[in-house]
Fold this sequence. Notes:
The protein contains four helices and 45 strands. By secondary structure, the chain is mainly beta. It has a domain at 48-257: Single-stranded right-handed beta-helix, Pectin lyase-like (Pectate Lyase C-like, 3 Solenoid). The protein has a 31-stranded mixed β-sheet that branches. A 14-stranded parallel β-sheet has the order 3-6-9-12-15-17-19-22-25-28-31-34-37-40, with no helix packed on it. Strand 44 and strand 45 (546-549) form a beta hairpin.
Amino acid sequence: MDSRHDLRVWWLPLLILWALGGISNALAQPRQEGSVSVRDFGAKGDGVTDDRAAIQAAIDSAKTGAVYFPPAPKGYLIAPAPGKKTFLELRSNVQLIGEGDPVIRVAGSSGPYDSVIYAGLCDYCVIQDLTIDSNIMLNPIKDKAELYAHGRFEIAFGAGQHIRVERVTIENSSSVNSIVAGVPARDISVTHCTFKLIGDDPNHIAHDYSALYIHGIGATIEGNSFTAARRGAPAAVTAIETHGSRMLISGNVVTDFAAGMNVTGIAPFDSVENVVRGNTITGAMVGIEVWSNAYAGHSSGYGINGLTITDNKIVLNQTSYTGLKLGEMAAAGIAVQPNANLPIAHVDITNNKVSFDLENSTRPANTASMGIGWWSSVGQTAEGFLIEGNTIENAPLAGIRLAAELKHCKIRNNTIKNAGSSLDQAIPIGYKTPIFIAGTPATEVEIADNHILDSLEPSRMRTALLLTTLKGVSSGLRLHNNSVSIYAMDKTSFKSHVYILDDNTMPLLTEDWDDFAAPTRRVAPGSTVRDSKNATSWKVSPQGGLSRQP
Length: 550
């Protein structure tokens, strides 16, 4: 027997299996003992017959175990149950498993409805290898009020533990949420799922939307892909929103949603041990927004007390979002929501890359825009923030901004390029600053080893670091070993390395800056600046000012 015949013999069974539903399922584990198939209960999978009752009968028959959906090239069509509240109801210890990634398609004229798959309590539930097509083109939304009354959730878990949603695709949707888990949820994972063609309907109704809206303790959201119907789609608002503790959000790809993620401390308890790592967000106005707000029964303590945001890549395309009101135009890479009303502690923002569109024509700006940081509109407390090793490019206003009651914060070894590049002349120049610290007050804050660059011609940067104390008296604000480099031939915009707005700040400056111009406000004892280009040094005078040394 020649080798070609060997290959034909080996490949022939796999080709047959591929035709029946794919090699991936051919190599999968055999069906569980005691499992059922929706075909056994009369589901046709012909794309025409309403299979809802047959699928529900299969689910009801499985007291524990798996309900399989065999390959169905034309999909399983479902219409809502009488009353149009829901289509399919799942319960604990039942798994819905597709073979060959079959499609469950919502029938036209089904809206409004509450959910496609609903489970009030769902311990040890699994949904995997299925596609849910919400068929939004044949189920238009009448208006926002109708949608908020009937959210059209694709998968809704009221409560439960040990829940897994794996390799599920949700498409053609403009629901309130695609997958939602209620407050009592524990140990839920949503992994390797795909959300596509999201956020628009034939009537183009704008409304709030989060593809994932996960409450609870212990969640893994990993390896998922989220793609809007288009950039600027009216309901392509947020890909991922979490509420709770021990959340891992890792390796997800978000494309053309206005906001990549809302990571919140809005829960019945302090939110701890949350990690956002290695995600890619493009085409956004806001990359990662952190919320820290009071919740029912939780109005004291911390909103967030332990959060790591690391190794994420965020591309903000703010110039693509047109027709917005000025108050909606804040663009931010990684930022705490301004109105957050609970303090935040122990936040590490490290090794992220944030880039904005470079604005080469005038675009109205919003003073809340920033690369990384928090402008607290209520003077809330930021304790133990570490902002380190990040790269921020083309921020229209501040590169890094902290305006809160700052305690024991460190801003170290960041590279900030072309910050303050907005051409909007209506914005006060102070907001267009690579590093902007406005403490209320600031206590033990270190700004060290940061690299501030301006490669635009002519230069647009006016001040590299702006410091102020909005309330009280700051202490222990230290600046050392920061570098400022301007590559333009025309540097006339640049006025000073550091601008101190008041005598309540009094930073300790230990720097080496060329062409240094001393600030008019007082600095702390021990400050010294070396101007190596002009072979001069500046030291503190008895009055707290910097004096040129002979």
